[in-house]
């Protein structure tokens, strides 16, 4: 049933300082509201229990993509459209651009934000696997100061995050160390656009001759959180990229992930697809 | 409980100031307050694109936009696509090439196509498919819609 609109507050702030002051003064009362592409869906379905939101969409401090010699730094309100249009991201972080292009359709891409995709904390989100594979860091800011933390480890359980109620996610930082990596991103959904993932797979690999020098593998929709497949990575690191290594990595991945049956797919289908994507990634990286 | 506040915004070139709840959906305000019923509600959850409008020159799903985020914005709905009695090339092409069947998806399809052609006047077939990817048609009329947009590009 549709929500009762007058029971919801959406207060517009004009500066980041004002937003931080508001969420600090009444801890837990105010939550950030950005592009609304997830919260408005819950609102319409009558499934948005929290009532008070701070409208951070107008905050210029949270927009823009900055490039320096070591990092690309994205404001939390960077939209999927902004991501796809950026030439440095296209060149050096193609999986993030692909994730952005496969999230919703254009109208969603114009409103959905990277920061929202992170703190909404859906295990089926499409940009977090790419961010994890690229070793992103995120900045959390409160009235007391700011801290940069690795994105890996931020999600601690279903919709649980290593973040205080007086903090806002403000920026996402990607190290520009992708030049000799192979990138592999696949979102598997019911259709190519406008579909929620059954499995999402993002991985990078750097070879040293026939051996795996470095690899980072991240998956969505196979666990309560979007996760790095650390054990699978360990099984690959330093190994020669041969059939036996691929077989061992596949077995490790199947033990490491724990997908469920839900409206979009089944656990057994997700396990098979995740394993197949891993094998395809490794075969592609080998050739 | 919250109270209504005055939001000033422009729709199809006309300025409005309306007293609305901050979380009211742009879709409902367009249809119920301004009686611009050309914008349709399909799914109400950002999947179907029937409620597509342009907000500051970008297409959005108006069912997902709360009024607090419309303050100062410039909105174009299907009622603002034609120039007086002269239809937009995309509208004319939809009529000539059977792009509209039941009509519920049509306003959103046309706004998505108009948006595409303004950003990219010579789109490839892939660009057209991508530009319309967020708009669903349940009459299974995609080919006629696609052909209408191709014809509109040739004008």
Provide a descriptive summary of the structure in words.
The complex is a heterodimer of chains A (287) and B (155). By secondary structure, chain A is an alpha+beta fold. Chain A has 3 domains: 5-55, Uridine Diphospho-n-acetylenolpyruvylglucosamine Reductase, domain 2, CATH 3.30.43; 61-175, Uridine Diphospho-n-acetylenolpyruvylglucosamine Reductase, domain 3 (2-Layer Sandwich), CATH 3.30.465; 182-286, Enolase-like, domain 1. In chain A, strands 4-5-10-6-7 form a 5-stranded antiparallel beta sheet. Chain A has a 4-stranded antiparallel beta sheet with strand order 11-12-13-14, sandwiched between helices. Chain A is globular and about 60 Å long. The termini of chain A are far apart. Chain A has helices at 16-25, 39-44, 80-85, 87-92, 94-101, 106-109, 114-119, 127-133, 230-236, 243-256, 267-286, and strands at 9-12, 31-33, 52-55, 65-67, 71-75, 137-142, 145-150, 155-157, 160-161, 168-175, 182-188, 199-208, 211-220, 227-228. Chain B has helices at residues 26-33, 89-96, 106-119, 125-131, 142-153, and strands at residues 5-11, 14-20, 52-55, 58-61, 74-76. Chain B starts with a strand and ends with a helix. Chain B has 5 helices and 5 strands; from the N terminus they run ββαβββαααα. A 5-stranded mixed beta sheet of chain B has the order 2-1-5-3-4, with helices on both faces. In chain B, α2 crosses α5. Chain B folds into 2 domains: 5-80, Roll (Ubiquitin-like (UB roll)), CATH 3.10.20; 89-153, DNA polymerase, domain 1 (Orthogonal Bundle). Chain B is α+β, with helices and mostly antiparallel strands and 155 residues long. Classes of the chains: A alpha+beta (287), B alpha+beta (155).
Question: Topology, please?
Answer:
The complex is a heterodimer of chains A (287) and B (155).
Chain A: E1 9-12, H1 16-25, E2 31-33, H2 39-44, E3 52-55, E4 65-67, E5 71-75, H3 80-85, H4 87-92, H5 94-101, H6 106-109, H7 114-119, H8 127-133, E6 137-142, E7 145-150, E8 155-157, E9 160-161, E10 168-175, E11 182-188, E12 199-208, E13 211-220, E14 227-228, H9 230-236, H10 243-256, H11 267-286
Parallel strand pairs in A: 1-3, 2-3
Antiparallel strand pairs in A: 4-5, 5-10, 6-7, 6-10, 8-9, 11-12, 12-13, 13-14
Helix pairs in contact in A: 9-10, 10-11
Chain B: E1 5-11, E2 14-20, H1 26-33, E3 52-55, E4 58-61, E5 74-76, H2 89-96, H3 106-119, H4 125-131, H5 142-153
Helix pairs in contact in B: 2-5
């Amino acid at each position: 049933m549709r929500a009762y609109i007058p029971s919801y507050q959406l207060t517009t702030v004009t500066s980041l300082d004002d937003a931080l002051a508001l969420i600090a003064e009444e801890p837990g009362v105010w939550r950030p509201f950005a592009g609304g592409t997830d919260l408005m869906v819950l609102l319409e379905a009558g499934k948005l229990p929290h009532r008070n939101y701070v409208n951070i969409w107008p905050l210029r401090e949270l927009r823009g993509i900055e490039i320096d010699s070591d990092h690309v730094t994205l404001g939390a309100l960077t939209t999927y459209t902004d991501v796809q249009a950026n030439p440095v991201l296209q060149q050096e972080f193609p999986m993030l651009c692909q994730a952005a292009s496969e999230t919703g359709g254009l109208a969603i891409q114009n409103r959905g934000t990277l920061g929202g995709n992170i703190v909404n904390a859906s295990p089926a989100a499409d940009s977090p696997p790419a961010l994890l594979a690229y070793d992103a860091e995120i900045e959390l800011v409160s009235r007391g100061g700011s801290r940069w933390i690795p994105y890996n480890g931020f999600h601690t359980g279903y919709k649980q995050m290593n973040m205080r109620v007086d903090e806002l996610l403000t920026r996402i930082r990607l190290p520009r160390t992708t030049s000799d990596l192979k990138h592999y991103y696949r979102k598997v959904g019911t259709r190519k656009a406008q579909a929620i993932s059954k499995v999402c797979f993002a991985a990078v690999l750097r070879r040293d001759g026939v051996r795996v020098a470095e690899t980072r593998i991240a998956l969505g929709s196979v666990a309560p959180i979007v996760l790095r497949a650390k054990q699978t990575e360990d099984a690959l690191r330093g190994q020669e990229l041969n059939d036996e290594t691929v077989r061992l990595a596949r077995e490790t991945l199947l033990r490491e992930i724990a997908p469920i049956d839900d409206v979009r797919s089944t656990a057994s289908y997700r396990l098979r697809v995740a394993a197949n994507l891993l094998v395809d990634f490794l075969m592609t990286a080998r050739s | 409980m919250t109270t209504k506040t005055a939001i000033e915004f422009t729709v199809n070139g006309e300025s409005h100031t309306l007293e609305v709840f901050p979380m009211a959906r742009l879709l409902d305000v367009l249809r119920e307050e301004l009686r611009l019923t050309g914008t349709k509600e399909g799914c109400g959850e950002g999947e179907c694109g029937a409620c597509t409008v342009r907000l500051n020159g970008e297409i959005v799903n108006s069912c997902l936009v709360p009024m607090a985020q419309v303050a100062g914005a410039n909105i174009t709905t299907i009622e603002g696509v034609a120039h007086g009695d002269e239809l937009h090339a995309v509208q004319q092409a939809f009529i000539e090439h059977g792009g509209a069947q039941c009509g519920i998806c049509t306003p959103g399809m046309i706004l998505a196509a108009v948006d595409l052609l303004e950003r990219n006047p010579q789109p490839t077939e892939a660009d057209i498919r991508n530009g319309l990817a967020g708009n669903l048609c349940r009459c299974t009329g995609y080919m006629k819609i696609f052909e209408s947009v191709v014809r509109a590009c040739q004008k």
